[in-house]
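Researcher: Go.
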Amino acid sequence: MNQSPVETALSRAMIRWSLTKSTPVKETPRSWIYRVEQNGRNFAALKIIKPEASREEGRGVRLLQWYEGDGAATVFDSHGDTIFMEWLDGGTLGDPVRAGKDDEGTIAMATVIASLHRPRPDAPEELQPLRDRFQTLFDTDVRAWPHTARDLYARSTGIALKLFDRPSAIVPLHGDLHHDNVLSSDRGWLAIDPKGLLGDPAYESANIFINPERADKIASDPKRIAARADILSQRLGYSRKRILGWAAAHAALSACWDLDEGKLITGQLAVLPNLLTAYDLA
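Model: Structure:
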């Protein structure tokens, strides 16, 4: 019987790393995830990347390997598009935030960012420049936005251009650091699924301000926005205004991605006016 490509990749991984059992966990648009065992004692994860996602996911894997488990899940080994890595079975950081512990969540995110941004030699090559990541924002026709929100798009785009015109340090970036991409473990909170970008370190916190999912009231609350900016600025040493500028720019970019896919942008529109106000006051 002919095997599918994922079945073939799984079979080869089981042999390559002497695995004794595999359990499918989930399929995403970009990969298949399995929980695997070695002799019934040690658990790990297998991530088999789909061919159409190989380039972007490959950047993320190389960045995870570069982190060497410091603030992120550990990659034990990889072969082609199959990744053998640490199994994390704790909840996400989104859970305590949705339960009302937003300050604790922001502190934890700042700790993770500090670990990921720790200076290390030999950064991976071929990371995506942050400016390229924002191309969708700059290419979007303002008429794609609801009529009453077009000023939000224009202001956010202007802020993004200003930030790119006045660059700060350029470092490797996770690039998709939101609460549900940070998992609990016996080693603390650890990031997963990086995009593999290269750019301004203050951008790393931008996704925090429109997350976690199912918590729009928290994200859009002006007091929460201010508290998040205060904690991140104090703990990471980045300018409060720069943090808020990237947050607004990213919220608009996220809206453009969703509009491209025909999705509603209710969440971004709830947050963006208050982000821009906070930016103006910073």
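Model: The beta strands are 21-27, 31-38, 42-49, 75-79, 82-86, 128-129, 171-173, 182-185, 188-191, 197-199.
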